[in-house]
Amino acid sequence: MGKVAALAGLVALLATGCSGDEVLRFGWPVGVTKESEDMRVLWTWSVIAALVVGVIVWGLIFWSVAFHRKKKTDGPGDLPRQFQYNVPLELFCVVLPLVMVCVLFFFTATTESKVLAEEPDPDVTVDVIAFQWNWEFDYPSAPKDANGQVVKTVGSSSEIPILVLPVGKRIQYNLRSADVIHSFWVPEFHFKRDVFPDPEKNNQDPSFQNTIDRAGAFVGRCAELCGTYHSGMNFEVRALPADQFDRYIQLRTQINPATGQPNTTAEALAALNCGELCAPQATTTKPFNTDRTLRTQSG
């Protein structure tokens, strides 16, 4: 019977088609930042510890059921052996869970400190301004454009704003809301933070940092119910190799001969000419049509 159960378990594992990395993730999604991998490691070891505890508890339950059940030969007044005054056992049942909680707290606090750590001199700084119902991204650490203005990207009802960031660089995000409470969330970052109108007065830390590990396009969302068109308040993160990001910022500061104005986000990405990664429009999400007259009668 044991061999059949082991074979069934092996077949079930192989039939899933999961790689070793996927198995060790225990359902944790793949992230794109160094910080998300730190959180994945905490999750993996927490699940392994929980499974070990679970196996021990299940084993003790089955052992008790198998070897300490009432026998047919027992008399009508017989009771199983009692342990309510067993001091060593009671100490064990109190001390061991306390040690487990302390260990879990230590590794959780350590990982949280690593994820929230901020370097004093990040490579890139982005000011994120949320407003009903879109986003503005400013680059205060970049050179000013040809008009002496800060390089910025502002979304509209017809255009999804693209937040262009470099791969392998330390990035600081400074968050602020122009009206109500929003929330800056990129699922692939495995991180989100509420965006307050006046974070200092609301006792909130308005900044965080991360390092993106790979290039790509990732959808970003508002994760705080902020009004009528909250569901359409999306943006796109476009992670470019560091050299292409530097070129993008340079293009944003230059005048476009066709318009006589500094290049927009779309114009700068198009000029980079690096394939799908430099598509001038968002590829992971699309604008939400806010024309309420388009609603058709139902029923």
Describe this structure in words.
The chain crosses the membrane at residues 44-66, 87-107. It is found in: Membrane. Pfam families: COX2. The protein has 299 residues and is α+β, with helices and mostly antiparallel strands. It folds into two domains: 18-65 and 85-117, no CATH class; 124-287, Immunoglobulin-like (Sandwich), CATH 2.60.40. The chain has helices at 2-15, 20-25, 34-67, 87-116, 242-253, 265-272; strands at residues 124-131, 134-138, 152-154, 162-166, 170-177, 182-186, 191-195, 207-211, 216-222, 234-240, 255-256, 261-262. A five-stranded mixed beta sheet has the order 3-2-1-5-8, with no helix packed on it. A five-stranded mixed beta sheet has the order 4-10-9-6-7. It has a two-stranded antiparallel ribbon with strand order 11-12. A hairpin with a 4-residue loop joins strand 6 and strand 7 (191-195). Helix 5 (242-253) packs across helix 6. The longest helix is centred in the first third of the chain and has 34 residues, at 34-67. It is elongated and about 100 Å long. The termini are far apart.
Strand content: 15-25%
Q: Determine Rg (CA atoms, Å).
A: 28 Å
- Total strands: 12
Biggest sheet: strand arrangement: 3-2-1-5-8
Family: Belongs to the cytochrome c oxidase subunit 2 family.
EC number: 7.1.1.9
Function: Subunits I and II form the functional core of the enzyme complex. Electrons originating in cytochrome c are transferred via heme a and Cu(A) to the binuclear center formed by heme a3 and Cu(B).
Organism: Amycolatopsis methanolica 239
